[in-house]
Amino acid sequence: MPQHKSNEKRVRQTEKRRQRNLQKKTQIKSAIKKVRSASNKETAAAELKKTCIVLDRMSSKGIIHKNKAANVKSKLSRFVNKLS
Prior knowledge:
Blueprint: H1 5-36, H2 41-60, H3 66-82
Helix pairs in contact: 1-2, 2-3
């Protein structure tokens, strides 16, 4: 348990950030699943565009690393290009 007021505040802030980051990571995973579950190339491409925006936003905020975002976007675009 924190012994100082500032430490109590730090615990509250950390918990808020943890919850926010967890929510954002769930949003990323859901967006990726939408691309993977798309039945045809057109819908997959549309979902890929939305997913890239989400990944870029999260990487700029520091929730995921920028290289991880780039790797995920690359894998998803290869997946969409293989669809017929």
